[in-house]
Amino acid sequence: MSLTRRMVLGSASLAALPLIGARAQTKGNIKIGVLNDFSGVYRDISGPLSVAATKLAVQDFGASAKGISVEVIFGDHQNKPDVGAGIARQWFDRDNVDFICDSANSAVALAVAGVCAEKNKVYVNSTAATADLTGVQCKPTTVHWTYDTWMLAHSTGGAMVKAGGSTWFMIVADYAFGHALQRDAGNFVTSAGGKVIGSVDAPLSTTDFSSYLLQAQSSGAKVIGLCNAGADTVNSIKQAAEFGITKSGVKLAGLLMFLNDVHSIGLEVAQGLVLTESFYWDLNDRTRAFTKRLLPTAEGNYPAMSHAGCYAGTLHYLKAVADMGVATAKQSGAATVARMKAIPTDDDCFGAGTIREDGRKLHPVYLFEVKKPSESKAPWDLYKLVVTTPVGEAFRPLADGKCPLVHV
Predict the structure, then answer these.
(1) Interatomic CA distance for residues 358 and 337, integer angstroms
(2) Per-residue pLDDT tens digits for 255-286
(3) CA separation for the pair 306, 217 (Å, rounded)
(4) What is the DSSP track for 158-226?
(5) H/E element holding 64?
(6) How deeply is 6 buried, as exposed, middle or buried, from its count of CB atoms within 10 A (0-12, 13-18, 19+)?
(7) What is the pLDDT of residue 247?
(8) What is this structure's pTM?
(9) What CATH homologous superfamily does 149-255 map to?
(10) CATH code for the domain defined by 5-147+283-363
């Protein structure tokens, strides 16, 4: 679907129907803002499907039956921190937004988290990856739901070293996310006995990765670590195949990849890649049920973990609002996040879980291998499960993050 500027900056309302009689009978009004990338490299892993997943959470929560009116609006941050922060301020100061989810860019996420802390509003990040959101830059109003750079490096990076990838060259998206992933992946490679022998920075939204890939290949590294995401990862892998790099024995490590990326690349090229996600639509009966409910509004896309995080984070936020009462929840984002941490999580995407003191949402993590074309039975039947990392091992230990909220 082609989005106009008016659509991107406008409102996609999902106001729950009021109780029979009069609007005054409702217990209160909540306004949710989905802030992400509608026009750039992260559109497929966030964009319209994150909005649809957020709306589904409101529907599944049953806001109307609980007497709560909920409206969902959305905005395009254009992958610019100043734009994202500006939209967040406008939403809070003019539009009475109570809660922001998504972001799809680590630099934007860090800026928006700062605005939310300043305005005492709730922020649930699903798609930005930097682990600093629950580390040195953690905030009492932030929950980091789906994945982070530490988790990705631990799972995918660790698996690649164990499989013989002892030397690495990193191609790094030149902003907060890429450098955080480079840092965390490098730490895991070296701690596992491997070595990072070089790296190169690439601008966000690069279409030609040829010079970076050839530099990586000439280094002699056994693994090329892709510290990028979205369309940048897709282009990197496609061009590596065109240059015959993978046929030469060099392995590619897509350190942040999504189902949507694999579908775009195609199994002929992507087969055999290992990657980490915390959600897969065909993982179990609950994930399949969620996907079935979402698909009618998905416009041919399928949900990845990023979209699932918007659904689950919104659902849990609304549970906390109902538990506290709308008026109390609207008064303090920090108090609402504290209640979210106190209530166990449970949803069809991630199952049962908890939110840690530093704002890190805890759940299992899955290492997948991309299927061969002969193994796939349908267009989105793309993964086979390699290993499950349990909750206690999946994310950075609480004491190691240096979050100022944590006292251990």
Answers:
(1) 11
(2) 999 999 999 999 999 999 999 999 999 999 99
(3) 31
(4) HHHHHTT--EEEEEEESSHHHHHHHHHHHHHHHHTT-EEEEEEEE-TT-S--HHHHHHHHHTT-SEEEE
(5) none
(6) exposed
(7) 86
(8) 0.91
(9) Response regulator (3.40.50.2300)
(10) 3.40.50.2300
